[in-house]
């Protein structure tokens, strides 16, 4: 009885607040709305993204337009920027927000200002204008100009999404914009802490992950944890840590989703704790533990009615083959990012330093000239002459090494009362200055790598987001035909059908009639006839049975490999696999040298690449991610390797070869053989993208991929040109034997061959 009374009191208390807000007059509602917009703008004004980007404030002011809320947003952004970054740095953000609102207010009577594109264009233009002023007095390198343009474009894009999230009409646009507003709020609150440990942004993110895990299961929880974690890592400069912690929490907590809320909270807390102890430092680990505990308490307290409302207003928890497909791919991406985090080495951080060469002389003067009676004469009246003498002395020291009195001009030595003491002090300060310069160069390189890492993360997310756009679509007509067929053929079987971004048909079967369906001898051919396409053998995932449309092109892969001197393990790793979209990948990783260490590097790189590619991330992004991981790992030890990746779309024949320091490959198409070379160095040696060569293959095409050790073989073009489809497997062994005979088997060697034919043509076993 007491439990029922407590639940009734809780529902009544939570129900009064929305009712009082609905009964409030419009004037008070406007004041509260303006106050909320001001506070939100204040938080966004003090939020900065990696690379010193700060587009959120100007975009937020543009999204609200020229009304009272727009003024509140601009005022909040201006105050937040100055309070968060100080007058010098915050003036850039404040000026952008002020100019955005001023432009929208002054031009509000014009007809075209009501168009959806005007406010985002204003945000982009004003961000670029203020950035150009700072660029005028700062660095003029191509990278600085690219960052300036990127910030302007980013401000316009974010403003467009903010506007979609603020409008009243329901739809995908509002859901996407609302999600971005929520992510921005989490990022803005990331640095707002209680007791210096508990972050309000991470607490809010933990509550969202718990809710997503409860409503959407393991896939929904992992997806929410991945996206929120990436945002928190970007705002707090904790690469990979929050992504790992929130992703693990969402995945583990989601296994109990839809059953007992306490088990969901317990699973999230345990997943977060395991990830925090694995990848976070002591201070961040403590904060994550406290934050998830607080979030779990807040998650358990509300009534079930609140979560039912959330379930109805969102797509989380809905069934359907396309949703399962997208959520599964996001889950694979979360697992791949966790593997990537384990490979990243901790990057050293050095302090800020002064690059002015004369600072060494100034510091030495503070030490030796403080009590000298000629101090005002040297450093006051004759300062320009002293400065010229010091510059000449610096050039003499750079050519001669250590500082000595002879490095200074004769007139300066005659005037100085303590020239030996001053020269010794200058030598010590010069040595310290050179050490600081080296540290600054190292810090700059580390920052470049960190920015590249976030750029790669963003590219990976764009690849994953492309799966959920218009290119992937449900197939209601096909699903209807299949249901009509299964209603009589195997009653109780549920089905759904959709096409992925590559146009390939996916069919999912589940239900009590699935067992009876599989017992029938001709069920696959009958189902293919009902679907209108030939379906491949099924893939079982849990309670669901997945079938795919067969590709029009068939591929056969041959491989031949050997170890250096016959001693294992080999430093080469070769893999071939096909994704759910019908894209075939051939990957060869050649570790530096041979033996266990080279084999371990190659195996880790190949395993991570396969996970990322299967998750739906583009091959060029995958290669960049591997290169960044190896560059960061090189802080502890050199871990470079050559990478060779061939992708073939078995529906369209489109192919692409990606190389990092790999040996040339041979591709036969249209009756001729093309030699595909790469100019880039091995992965893990320089910060640049892979070499990329695009090809169009057809039936009868073939390819040979080999490592450096096997590149000694001669006349590979002629052999490939004369070789038929049935002989390509033997060709791999022949090339390996010839290369080994010429090189004395002094290197690990791997050869991959590919034969491509139309399905049903003779030649492929």
Strand line-up of the largest beta sheet: 3-4-5-7-6
CATH class of the largest domain: Alpha Beta
Number of discrete domains = 4
> What gyration radius follows from the Cα positions, in whole Å?
32 Å
Largest sheet: 5 strands, antiparallel
Q: So how many helices? A: 25
Determine the N-to-C terminus distance.
72 Å
CATH A-level architecture of the largest domain: 4-Layer Sandwich
Strand tally is: 17
CATH topology of the largest domain, by name, is Phosphatase 2c, domain 1
Compute the average pLDDT: 76
Shape: globular
Which structural class do the helices and strands define? alpha+beta
The residue fraction in helices comes out at: 55-70%
Fourth-tier CATH superfamily name of the largest domain? PPM-type phosphatase domain
Residue share in β-strands = 5-15%
What does this entry look like structurally?
With 765 residues, the chain is α+β, with helices and mostly antiparallel strands. It has four domains: 22-188, no CATH class; 193-343, no CATH class; 478-546; 553-758, 4-Layer Sandwich (Phosphatase 2c, domain 1). The chain is 59% helix and 13% strand. It has a five-stranded antiparallel β-sheet with strand order 3-4-5-7-6, with helices on one face. Strands 8-17-16-13-14 form a five-stranded antiparallel β-sheet. Helix 14 (359-368) crosses helix 18 (419-466). It is globular.
């Amino acid at each position: 009885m007491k439990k029922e009374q407590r639940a009734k009191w809780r529902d009544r208390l939570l129900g009064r607040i929305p009712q009082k807000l609905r009964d409030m007059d419009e004037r008070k509602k406007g004041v509260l709305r303006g106050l909320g917009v001001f506070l939100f703008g204040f938080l966004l004004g003090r939020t900065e993204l990696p690379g010193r980007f700060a587009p959120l404030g100007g975009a937020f002011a543009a999204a609200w337009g020229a009304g009272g809320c727009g003024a509140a947003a601009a005022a909040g952004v201006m105050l937040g920027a100055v309070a968060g970054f100080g007058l010098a740095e915050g003036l850039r953000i404040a000026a952008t927000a002020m100019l955005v609102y001023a432009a929208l207010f002054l031009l509000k009577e014009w007809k075209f200002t009501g168009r959806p594109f005007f406010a985002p264009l204003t945000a982009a233009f004003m961000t670029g204008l203020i950035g150009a002023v700072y660029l005028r007095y700062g660095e003029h390198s191509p990278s600085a100009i690219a960052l300036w343009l990127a910030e302007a474009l980013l401000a316009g894009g974010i403003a467009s999404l903010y506007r979609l999230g603020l409008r009243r009409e329901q739809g995908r646009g509002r859901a996407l914009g609302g999600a971005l507003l929520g992510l921005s709020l989490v990022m803005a609150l990331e640095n707002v802490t209680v007791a210096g440990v508990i972050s309000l942004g991470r607490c809010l993110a933990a509550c969202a992950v718990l809710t997503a895990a409860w409503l959407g299961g393991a896939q929904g929880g992992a997806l929410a944890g991945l996206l929120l974690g990436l945002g928190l890592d970007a705002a707090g400069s904790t690469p990979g840590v929050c992504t790992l912690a929130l992703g693990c929490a969402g995945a583990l907590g989601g296994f109990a989703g839809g059953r007992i809320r306490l088990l969901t909270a317990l699973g999230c807390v345990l997943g977060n704790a395991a990830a925090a102890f694995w990848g976070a430092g002591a201070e961040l680990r403590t904060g994550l533990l406290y934050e998830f505990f607080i979030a779990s308490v807040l998650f358990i307290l509300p009534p079930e009615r609140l979560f039912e409302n959330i379930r109805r207003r969102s797509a989380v928890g809905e069934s359907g083959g396309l949703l399962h497909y997208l959520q599964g791919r996001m889950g694979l991406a979360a697992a791949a990012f966790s593997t990537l985090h384990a490979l990243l080495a901790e990057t050293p951080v050095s302090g800020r330093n002064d690059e002015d060469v004369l600072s060494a002389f100034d510091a030495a003067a503070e030490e030796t000239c403080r009590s000298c009676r000629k101090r005002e004469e040297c450093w006051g009246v004759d300062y320009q002459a002293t400065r010229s003498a010091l510059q000449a002395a610096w050039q003499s020291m750079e050519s001669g090494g250590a500082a000595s009195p002879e490095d200074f001009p004769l007139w300066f030595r005659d005037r100085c009362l303590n020239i030996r003491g001053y020269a010794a002090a200058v030598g010590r300060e010069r040595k310290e200055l050179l050490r600081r310069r080296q540290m600054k160069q190292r810090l700059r390189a580390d920052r470049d790598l960190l920015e590249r890492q976030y750029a790669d993360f963003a590219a990976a997310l764009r690849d994953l987001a492309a799966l959920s756009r218009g290119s992937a679509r449900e197939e209601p007509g096909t699903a209807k035909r299949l249901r009509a067929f299964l209603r009589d053929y195997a009653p109780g079987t549920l089905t759904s059908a959709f096409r992925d971004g590559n146009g390939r048909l996916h069919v999912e079967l589940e239900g009590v009639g699935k067992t009876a369906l599989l017992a029938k001898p001709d069920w696959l051919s009958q189902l293919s006839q009902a679907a209108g396409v030939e379906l491949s053998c099924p893939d079982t995932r849990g309670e669901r049975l997945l079938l795919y449309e067969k590709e029009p092109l068939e591929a056969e892969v041959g491989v031949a490999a050997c170890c250096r001197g016959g001693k294992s393990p080999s430093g080469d790793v070769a893999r071939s696999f096909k994704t759910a979209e019908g894209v075939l990948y051939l990957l060869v990783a050649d570790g530096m040298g041979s033996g266990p260490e080279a084999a371990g590097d190659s195996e880790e790189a190949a395993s991570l690449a396969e996970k990322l590619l299967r998750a739906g991330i583009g091959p060029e992004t995958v290669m960049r991610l591997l290169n960044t991981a190896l560059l960061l790992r090189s802080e502890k030890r050199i871990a470079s390797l050559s990478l060779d990746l061939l992708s073939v779309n078995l529906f369209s024949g489109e192919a692409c070869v990606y190389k990092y320091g790999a040996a040339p490959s041979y591709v036969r198409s249209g009756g001729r053989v093309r030699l595909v070379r790469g100019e880039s160095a091995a992965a893990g040696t320089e910060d640049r993208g892979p070499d990329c060569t695009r090809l169009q293959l057809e039936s009868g095409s073939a390819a040979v991929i080999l490592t450096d050790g096997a590149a000694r073989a001669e006349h590979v073009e002629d052999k490939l040109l004369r070789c038929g489809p049935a002989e390509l497997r033997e060709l791999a062994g022949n090339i390996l034997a010839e290369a080994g005979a010429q090189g004395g088997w002094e290197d690990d060697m791997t050869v991959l061959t590919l034969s491509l034919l139309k399905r049903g043509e003779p030649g492929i076993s």
